[in-house]
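Sample pair:
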Amino acid sequence: MSDPEKDYEVGYGRPPKATQFKKGQSGNPKGRPKGAKGFNASLQRELETKVTVREGNREIKISKAEAAAKRLVATALKGDMKALTMLARFDADLSGRLDSDAEDAALSDTAEPVDYDILRHLFATDLGDDECGEVREADDEDS
């Protein structure tokens, strides 16, 4: 029987077995710890936690993000111009995104008159006709 290490040929893309990563061993042992998360993940987790808020004579539990949104709207309604400006900017961002999505959907469903002319010509003539070639040449001269 042959030894598996002797059958292994070292070369391009085939490093020596002794220098390859061991199973279960990290390639960057001093890298980020497994439990550590980034700032955005921490902020998202914090905004998702629930708080108790009093609305009128009842208490409800809502997320901190929802509580911040309620506070922003309430402050803007009281006449605070900074809050009103911030709210208008958020609304414009949301409205702009919704409008652009609707516009993209509408554009993908509509065709231009030139497209209809091309299709009409395609269905009206036989693709093997010489006449079709003449029309293409005439179109090339126009451009």
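Confidence is low (pLDDT under 50) at residues 129-141.
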